[in-house]
Amino acid sequence: MDNIIGYRESSTSQNEPENNWRRYFSFSTDHKVIGVQYMVMSFIFFLVGGLLAMVIRAELITPQSNVVDLPLYNGLFTLDGTIMIVLWIIPFNAGISNYLVPLMIGARDIAFPLLNAISFWMIPPGGILLLSSFLLPNSTAQTNWWSYPPISLQIPPGQPINGELIWIVSLVIIGISSIMGAVNFVTTIFWMRAPGMTFFRMPVFIWSVLSAQLLQLVNLPSLTGALILLLFDLNFGMQFFKPLENGDPIIYQHLFWFYSHPAVYIMTLPAFGIFAEVLPAFSRNPLFGDRSLAVASLGIAVVSIFVWVDHMFTSATPSWMRILFIVTSMLVAVPTGVKAFGWTATIWKSKLHLETPMLFAMGGAAMFLLGGVTGVMLAAVLFDIYLQNTHFIVGHFHYIVFNTITMAIFAAIYFWFPKITGRMYAEGWGKLHFWLTFISANLTFFPMLPVGLQGMVRRISSYDPRYQGWNVIASLGGFLLGVSILPFIGGNMVGSWLYGTRAVNNPWHATGLEWTTTSPPPQDNFDEIPVVKRPPYD
Amino acid sequence: MHTPPKSEPAYAVASDDKPKPASETIEVFVKQWDWSFRYPNNVTGDELHLPVNLRTRLNMHAKDVLHSFYVPEFRLQQYIMPGPNINLIVTPKHIGRHRLKDALFKGTYFALMGANIQVESLEEYNQWLTKTEKEPKMRKNQALAEYSQSPKTWFKTGWYTVVPDQRASGRSALLTAVSKENT
Description:
Chain A is built from 15 helices and two strands. By secondary structure, chain A is an all-alpha fold. Chain A has a two-stranded antiparallel sheet.
């Protein structure tokens, strides 16, 4: 660590990590506490969403509808999609960014600590509100995670408190929280870097977080605004989106996808950043082309602002618009391709240290290939109009959100677990967790691609018996995926956090600033603010 | 804004195809949760019959929410929304029986929405038309049948659902909407 002048071995590093769990339930303004709060809370929502998904898979084992009745089935996949996106991946990314951004750029805290705490504490009420709609007598939200009008405006007559209203209100709350979080991250990265840390000396993870949070700032207000207009239509008799009263439901689709397509990149970019930190550490190589990878993050963010009509090729969209958006949607493949080449070149011909974080990162990056290639296929109109609303889309999307992003999240948890808790995780449990996850994730999501190509429509509870074979495989894989989380929770999150062996400051011989401080870091992160003299991966 | 008059159909026509007038026009009506079709001479039915190798124009009308006309074998999908006139011109090339699906999620009985498509020779098509004109038959409404009985599932919530239209099809309401547009 000779690249940082002013760093010295901290005297506290040999102490037992303080086990003050009460602060995790308090209104703390410490970015590390808030980061852990975000991560643990979103993981709990991940478990809830996973349970809903397993009920969906149970329903799809047989071609008939025989497990849950139709309104509940519709509510299940609506909330599965909503929870996994807005209560698992996005808050988890906010949590890991919260924990790491100040440490990686050599700051003592995030720019606005109080705002940070407020944005966190808006999410649990929003999430609990959303789940509470299962207790309503009339129904939870039933109209899928996009909630297109006019279908989303079909509510029980004379019942102003309904699942759709609760869905909108909780999404607006969580959306406002994300916007405030984005303000915080962007300000922190721009203004609070340690002396000597120029933009190109920032780790690629920081570039990814910056790009993702800039997207949140630009695009998220459009969704929050659309939802408020939808609320006016729903409860106050307005007609922004009612086609039979001169409203235009397509405008909602534009506003919705203007956020919700970039949302995929908001979720994926931090995952790319995690790969860029884990792969060099375990191949003991500097990251290949770190500047190109940094610029590619920003490139993905810029291009992804112009791809939203990709989801509306069948919505009577005029030809010129379709052609324009084929080009922009395919253009995304260029910066993502740069990233994939960068990761491959980093581990090329080097001795790999296959510990759990590396396994998860390599597994995630490899499966991103399938998720990305199917994405490029869907950018082409002629292919897309054939497969829009089929299980092919479900398979493609889950290859991104589960097999890439959630794998990256697990890689991040294992990679920074020693830094966050001051203890090592159990390698055996970790490897078991990886192999169970990798196998069952592919069993679950791969069958959706061929069954979609055969024309199986998504969001249905009963289907043509000829699709059953693939669906049985997907369902069994789904249940195994549920089991695969047990070694993670029992073996590592509980066992290692309480009883793991003490971690040294830098167990992976990694290069980031966060590894120069103690594990876990002291209250102010660094005894003395480091001065950066070299590029990030030297 | 999204359906300018010159908007081209989603169906890809080969480049040497000169725009020709469609030789047959079929009105397609869709609502929660069934399809119905009106052929020339006011023949109505719940199956879509298409003459092979002929350009057929499908004028599509949705009554309530967004729907999607999806035939996997035709590699074709088009959203239908209440209000704007949306039409497709299709030229089926092979005789066969297919299944029309509604691909866009639209509430409780979404999975039940389908209709048979029969692509047949022009003679058979005309025979079918005259036969159906004499003795029109309407299949029972599947969503309505499901609605009128308790679900056979293991777990029941009895949550709110939109009630399927009592009439066999919503044609009369649609016809007034169509005639309004034409005037």
